[in-house]
Fold this protein.
Amino acid sequence: MAGNGMEKDDNSNMANSSQTSDAAVDGVTVGGAVMVRDKDIVDNAANASNVTTLVSLVQKAELVETLKGAGPFTVFGPDNDAFAKLPAATVESLQMPENKAALANILTYHVVSGTYTSAALKVMAEKGETLTTVQGQTLTPVIDGDKLKIEDAMGNKVDIETADVISSNGVTHVIDSVLMPKS
């Protein structure tokens, strides 16, 4: 209810909590966890409850040390719901040791060398530019209506749910679907 002081108190508390650490990323939370600017991409993701599937798959693909490296990286990180949209058999198959290369291929398709904030991605979308992933194929930032989306090699446009999660070695954009490279 407006005028009861609740909004002011809520905002004051939010401001105070974001001021408790200079390293906090402008109050950005992912999966209920405050993202911290001086933590790397992997450490921030490991604290977020909505990207646990991604973290587990990064571990299975043995990409943790790479993503903890100096970077900088831009990661388009699918949330748990994104992986739940895939057939369960697909996710299970990708987790098998004999499919580690296929898993790494899909995961590295979500990573770009360099730091691309949502503002930079919007400029790229306006210019019709693409991003080359660590995997080697491209992603295309697009403006769809008033929303910034990422288009994969299969023509799927995915929403960016949480943009500009700044870490010590790059930026993460949490997305609502898994990006798929061409086979």
About this structure: The chain is about 35% helix and 30% strand. The chain has one domain: 26-175. The first strand starts at residue 24 and ends at 30. Strands lie at 24-30, 33-36, 73-78, 111-113, 131-132, 138-144, 147-151, 157-167, 170-175.
